[in-house]
Design a protein that fits this description.
Shape: elongated
Helix content: 55-70%
Strand content: 5-15%
CATH architecture of the largest domain: Orthogonal Bundle
Order of helices and strands: HEHHEEHHHHHH
Radius of gyration: 23 Å
Structural class: mainly alpha
CATH class of the largest domain: Mainly Alpha
Largest sheet: 3 strands, antiparallel
């Protein structure tokens, strides 16, 4: 397995170590930090097994204290954990950026896209018409191309070839205003 193909557990391992490299935290605060970074609350069933794995490997240690009647573990990163993080720094940054990117995409409507794909997945099972399958393949391909175009626009790559298309689509999506025809077709300043 390449480091780029880390499973969720591997990504969570790096994310938790990054969080703990800032300061020691108890499990609840680690989950809150993950939620802040990803925009989605993690389940305790995904976080605590990774924390236990990090404890076994010696990448983190825990101190136990009492808070009222409760026992609370505070986790902190060890030198071995810092070395592991340093050895995987590039990947850790990539994981952090990807989680943050998904958080931003959720704010921009990612859940709507996920819901649409779930509905399509349920509906496609019942298709027995080749023309409909070809149409769905075309829609998925066009959607993928537009997503990659958005990535390229953000990165500035391929902008010259696609700027007219992007501006045209963006202007079409802008809220209508009582502007004159010339003002209505003004180019967005961000692009």
């Amino acid at each position: 397995m390449s480091k780029d193909d880390l499973d969720l557990r591997g990504k969570l391992r790096l994310l938790i170590l990054l969080i703990l490299s800032d300061s020691p935290k108890h499990g609840y605060l680690i989950m809150k930090e993950i939620e802040k970074l990803t925009g989605k609350p993690p389940s305790p069933g995904s976080v605590y097994p990774v924390l236990n794995e990090l404890l076994r490997k010696g990448y983190v240690e825990a101190s136990v204290s009492r808070v009222g009647a409760r026992v609370q573990k505070t986790y902190f990163i060890t030198e071995a954990g810092m070395r592991y993080l340093e050895e995987n720094k590039e990947l850790a940054i990539k994981v952090m950026r990807r989680f943050k990117g998904f958080s931003i995409l959720r704010e921009l409507g990612l859940e709507e896209l996920k819901d649409a794909l779930k509905e399509l997945a349920e509906a496609v099972v019942d298709i027995d018409d080749e023309v409909k399958l070809i149409y769905i393949k075309k829609v998925i391909s066009e959607c993928s191309q537009k997503i990659l175009l958005a990535r390229d626009v953000i990165a500035g790559a391929g902008l010259q070839n696609n700027i007219a298309l992007v501006r045209e689509e963006t202007v079409r999506e802008l809220p209508s205003s009582p502007a004159t025809g010339a003002e209505a077709h003004a180019e967005p300043k961000d692009l």
